[in-house]
Amino acid sequence: MRPLRASRVFVLLGLVVLTAARPRAGPDQKCKPGPLDLIFLIDSSRSVRPHEFETMRKFMIDILNSLEIGPDSTRVGVVQYSSQVRSEFSLKTHGDLESVVAGIRQIVPLAQGTMTGLAIRYMMNEAFTAEQGDRPKVPNVAVIVTDGRPQDRVAEVAAEARERGIEIFAVGVARADMTSLRAMASLPFEDHVFLEESFDLIHQFGLQFQDAFCGLDLCKEMDHGCEHVCENSPGSFHCLCSEGYTLNEDGKTCTAIDLCAEGKHDCEQVCISSPGNFSCDCREGYRLQDDGRTCSMVEFCSFGNDSCDHHCVNMLNGFYCTCKEGHRLQADGKTCQAIDLCAEGKHDCQQVCMNMGPAVFTCDCNEGYTLNEDERSCTPIDLCAEGKHDCEQVCISAPGVFTCDCRKGFRLNHDKKTCTNMEMCSSVQHGCEHQCVNTPGSYYCVCPEGQLLQDDGKSCGACTSANIDLVLLIDGSKSVRPQNFELVKKFVNQVVDSLDVSAHGTRVGLVQYSSRVRTEFPLNMYHTAEDIKAAVMKVEYMEKGTMTGLALKHMLENSFSEAEGARPAARSVPRVGLVFTDGRSQDDISEYAKKAKEAGITMYAVGVGKAVEDELREIASEPVEKHFYYTTDFNAISTIADNLKLNVCPEESQGEVEVKDPCACENLVEFQQNTGSSLEQLTQKLAAMNTRLVELENQLLSRK
């Protein structure tokens, strides 16, 4: 298959008028339109009645009678279709009119559906092939005759056939659909689409088709409508456009080719269009180069019109001046001045800015300071911290220099570097009752064997009471009842009265429990017996259940923590827990009763009323008889308080609280040594604080 000549248009309807004015070609006067490969595609669906099919058969024969049929002129093939496609004979089957007509007369209708799209694809892929007699460079023409709407898609396959150069005439009869006919036919539709009311009128298209191929000069004999040029061809004509124009889709009018708008130019700046041609120009401030395409800026600077101090920059219709790096353009727009960032304060040096040239600076520091790695900030030179001094005890630093001093209890010698110890015991009123012991810059008091240094750190006395951390767990369950709970609080206060309560002595914490646990006050909240007793009387009764195991867990994990005031284990302050309950626990007590004793807590168990003896014994420390108390009546608990001894001096303690005897000689010496060491540490810290204060004073003076 080959493309037809460009824009071939068959104006068959126009030929109707011309046909009436001239004789048609008779049997002895054959039309010679030139070589042509013609395929009839005829609809033989069941809707085409027998007499209508005969009319269609006669329609084809009438057209062929007017054409010169032969291997070198017009070749004819017929394809019949309904629900299937059948080639009746191909382009190479018959070589003369008689055999073609005989082949047409032998066609038997298929009488099925209307698969027009299938037939067009067969025509395109099979009928118009070299194997079936199609010739190269010979126009392909197809005449489709149908009486109904296609049962398949025709638009896509018809478009593909037209793209391959097949010129399609669509002839519809009776029930044919105009939309489908236009989808199949070539352009323009008025020359390629025909719709007749009945098969009896189909011969009219036959007459028009004959005239279309009989060699008229249609450009001269009719109003062709071409805007520029009409070119005649056998049975047709086509329109052409003058140079610089392109033919529009209507095949008649022309549009100027705008190469500028289409981007088909190589102008650098401005493209000026004319039909099919263009010329180049430049924007204002530029001139066109000799190549007629590129532009260059008008060089005002090179013309010697500038008076710039440093650089001249061309611009449209003029120029402007710029300065070298590190310089600033002045108000006249021409001269330049070096930028001094130090003088303008546009730097980030902490102390000294040194100008090194236009817009360049470096930083430096005052005497006694050193420049940091950021090359901006300064750090005082601390000779003391760097160890670059020969002070014996205290070095006091100032930027780049230092002075020496001595710790408390020492005096600076004449060399201003070394120190001499001052005998504090002989030089001050130390107030020690028994003996004063010197330490560097300080002193401490000691007592004779068998006596203990009292809280004032000076007087001596006998051992009266041990210092302990005591936590009381009191049962606030519903079974206790409000009036008995008041008796429990009095019991707690009786215990407190028997203790030496102070911040450095015995500390007391209180926890109430029922179905939950509540810390009433921790060990570090109150430091006098009066404050503790007042807080106890304000405790509110909780009621509900008896979760003794939960209370033991809380005591172990929270109450005896340093956060709540328990003193560090290293200080060997005994920890004592006292549980007061009136009934059976509703949870397991074994685990945390055991863990409390394993943690070194001496446990006392006090039971009243329905308290379970086995539980009390499990809570109490060994020997159980000295740590377990029980009474049937709340009114008798005051007697227990009188007999309960929680202090840990050996002669008074009834429990197995294992602590060192503070009155023993070896323990007394150890205590005195520990006290002396602690005083020494405090003295050193005080000296360091004094040194720091002197340093801060010196820094303030240096800033002034």
TrEMBL record:
Subcellular localization(s) per the UniProt record: Secreted
One cellular component (GO) term of this entry: extracellular region
Listed PANTHER family: COLLAGEN ALPHA, MATRILIN-4
Domain spans labelled VWFA: 37-213, 469-644
Source organism: Oryzias latipes
Keyword tRNA-binding: no
Cited Pfam families: cEGF, FXa_inhibition, Matrilin_ccoil, VWA
Keyword annotations from UniProtKB, A to Z: Coiled coil, Disulfide bond, EGF-like domain, Glycoprotein, Repeat, Secreted, Signal
Signal peptide coordinates: 1-21
Primary location group: secreted
SUPFAM superfamilies: Chicken cartilage matrix protein, EGF/Laminin, Growth factor receptor domain, vWA-like
Molecular functions (GO terms): calcium ion binding
Protein name: Matrilin 4
